Amino acid sequence: MSDDAVLTKRWSTLTRVHRRIETRIGRCLHQHLGLGTTEFYALRALREGTRAGAGSLYLNDLANEIGLSQSATSRLVGRLQDRGLITVQTSSRDRRSVDIELSVAADDVLRRGVPLLHQAVGDVVRELGGEKTDEVLLRYLRGDADDAALRPDGPVVASCRATA
Question: What is the rounded average pLDDT for all residues in the chain?
Answer without folding.
Answer: 83
